[in-house]
Amino acid sequence: MGSSTVIVVGAGQAGCQVASSLREEGFTGRIVLVGAEAHLPYQRPPLSKGHLTGKTSRDALWLRPESWFGEQGIEVRTSTRAKHLDTDGRRVLLQDGEALEYDDLVLATGARNRLLRLEGAGLEGVLSLRTLDEADEVKVRLEQAARVVVVGGGFIGMEVAATAVQLGKNATVVEVADQLMGRVLSSHTAAFLLQAHRARGLDVELTTTVSRIVGVAGRVAAVDTTDGRRLPADLVLVGVGASPNVELAEQAGLEVDNGIVVDELLRTSAPHVYAVGDCVCAPNPFAGGTRVRLESVQNATAQGRRLAATLTGRPEPF
Question: Does domain 5-112+242-311 have CATH number 3.50.50.60?
């Protein structure tokens, strides 16, 4: 346990939790945390709430201070992408050409926002929010905006829309379904949420589909709906779900099905390769044992802790 190397690809909530929990479990070997973003691991939930209003300071976003990683002997490679996996040779090839050898590899590659594939989706002022850099841009543009249209009534969309109303903006949510957050809420709870948001001044349009985004001189000006309405907007936030980042796993020949497929010990189809977090499709006893992909901080944290225990000799089904 003291001379082995664990490489974690992905420096989000799940990846950082694996590294942190490995040390808590007594692992004394080498840990390398590889992250594509330029930042140290940070919390995502405040990005669509307190960060936009300025109530959450930037320093409060970090999962761990920079000094902590040094104290724990965890190597953090920011602005670094993993380009290729050699599961036979147990190597990760980085984009800069460096090859990292591992005894165990953890894929915590997360997910990315789905894009709108319609006319005007590439206009200036049409944004999504998942990363800190994206949140910074949304914050600046939200301060300048007067009319905001949010496409998608999920967690991110509703949080940004509620923040916009709180900041005194005219905000509209366009949701294709007949209720908000249909994947996670009962119809009764969704109805309560809808009433609460409308009472605070948020316009919510259910069973409504966007047909195109209209621009003037390359910048967003309005959103057209399929029922013939035009909603003025100088900022459009797209929140229509996320797709797991599985390209690295697919290239390596790992089994993929709505995420990287793992067993109850979070093992992928390749020896000594594990996966955790938003990119993972894992068997779930509460779903009759079928595989489920969950996008949540709680799931990422729990899987990270459980995997660290497994890697240090205490295997237990997640």
Answer: yes
